[in-house]
Amino acid sequence: MDTTTHAMKDGAVTDEFDHAAGAYDRLVAANPGYHAHLRVSARRLGLPWDGTGLRLLDLGCGTGASTAALLRALPRARIAGVDASPGMLEAARAKRWPGSVSFHQARAEDLTTEWAQRHLGGPVDAVFGAYLIRNCPDPDALLASVRALLRPGGRIVLHEYSVADSVSARAVWSAVCWGVVIPAGKALTGRADLFRYLWRSVLEFDGRTALLDRMRRAGLESVASAPLPGWQYGVTHTFVGRRPNGASGGAPDSAPNGSPEGPRR
């Protein structure tokens, strides 16, 4: 199989996630801070109270780890998890969920406002995308789709690896991948293609500043980022933004919970 980043994004990545789905939860459970970091990013949406009356979209939900983080932060919200991989969705649906949570197979960038009306009952209050945008063939198309799905003032959080701006973060990432992630992934799934792709795709993806700029170009405002703690400090980040209010765009909000920050020069 051709495991270059371009080839994997051109369809093979979904097949590889299908293959890894049965072992995926065991893999991420071995990653210190994986679930805790998702919960931090979910809280950084900055949404009020317990989520009563809110419609949330969890894009690239995988086996449901990010969905669980959203549910813990906003237990009364209505949440739709979306993923392109049927294998990952099968694993997600096998878990126990309240009636307010549903799962759907689709490509994130193909979702429309009609889809949101049909499955969530109206415009989306917030979109959460964990480890998603890096895997999309066209990140700008994804952000355009997200902006259209959000209600005016609706928020987005991207929880993502981003190491291009830091020599030390790239070194840590490569050491962890070749020392732990790739060998463990191969041992649990029988092949290493997905995990070599993971390593390479992170190295090739936007740095923090570039992703913040990409979000602004997509018409999002109040764009900011914040690091996550532990060994992933400087490797994994929360990126936040929101759709402007009204035709004029409205005034930017203060930073959501967790005090994300804009570009550092």
From TrEMBL:
Regions crossing the membrane: none
GO BP annotations, alphabetical order: methylation
InterPro entries: SAM-dependent_MTases_sf (IPR029063)
Region (Disordered): 242-265
Keyword entries, A-Z: Methyltransferase, Transferase
Superkingdom of the source species: Bacteria
GO molecular function: methyltransferase activity
CDD domains: AdoMet_MTases
Record-linked Pfam families: Ubie_methyltran
Identification of the protein by name: Class I SAM-dependent methyltransferase
Organism expressing this protein natively: Nocardiopsis alborubida
